[in-house]
Amino acid sequence: SCSSWLPQRVPLRCSHWQSSLLEVRTSPPVRAQPKKKKKVDVKKEQAQKERMKKKLKKLEKAAPELIPIEDFIAPLKYSESNRVRSLPALSPEESERRVLLLKKWCLFKQKQDEAEKKAIKALVESQQEALKELRLEGEELYQAAIRRDEGLFPFERDGPSYTPPLPGYDPPEGKCIDVTKVYTQ
Amino acid sequence: DALLGCHRSYRSRPTHGIGKFKYLLPKEVPKKRKEKVQMKEISAGTEYQYGDVNIQMTSYDLCLVERFAQYVHRLCNRLSIQVNESYAMPTKTSEVLFLEERGSKMQLDAVLTSHQRIVQIRGLSSTFAPILLEVIQSNQPEGLHLLVKQHTEADFKSRLKSRPELEELLAQMS
Q: What is the annotated localization of this protein (chain A) (predicted)?
């Protein structure tokens, strides 16, 4: 608003620090207090750094802890109540039947286990025979076959499913939220 | 003082060991010091042997995964494969929400807990590895996800608790 009536030849003040209109300020205006010396700053910084280092040492001294596994911690509600299950008494025929069934199951599982051991043995033997024959064919081929396979790991496989997937099944929309408890030390 | 210090007891005399009483006190069990959780050295393995291999079994069914881990452990023992460790990873809980047919609100369907067990083996020979994998695969139950991979430091670190303060300080320092 004051610029409207000032004559054009008088220059305007750039800032309020510029008290005279003809001179130009070469340096910023001096404050009332003299500037703080640099030594105090450096000391403060060093003290801060040392404090941080001490804190770091203390934290590093504490050994890292394993995350507690919730599977192995029984919830309290199962140990608080004193209720006891009362089962009906078994008749001798029933207990006899159960024992015989258990024996049959044991025998079945034993046969299964032995068959598995036999199969593993057969696999290993046939593998050794094949490697022997390969060695006779050529030493280089044998050495290349003995080497470990880098592409074997990582090996991933989903378990088989009870039923095949339904054709044309439209699942409802939804989402999964991970609510695992995060433990911090 | 020297006279009081000497404990002379004549072994032939009936008064030998008359002042002993420590044998009457109950045995003191030495205090168990907390063992620091340290990472064991990860072997890289030679050209004909794999180093540390992790067999990770994941499932939503706890009993199933435990029984299968026991089976794999026993199988490795039987086949004389060295088992370093057999441990469990922390359980992961997740909430499954689904969108109702007529409505915009998400409804809670179920809370699922995912369990994981790891059997760590060492010194698996290159010729026997495919046989072992074949056996484990043939016995894999339904709903169990199998993953066999090399053991790394990152795998070990994932078992430990996170330390945000330490990380913050380290970030500030550097």
A: Mitochondrion
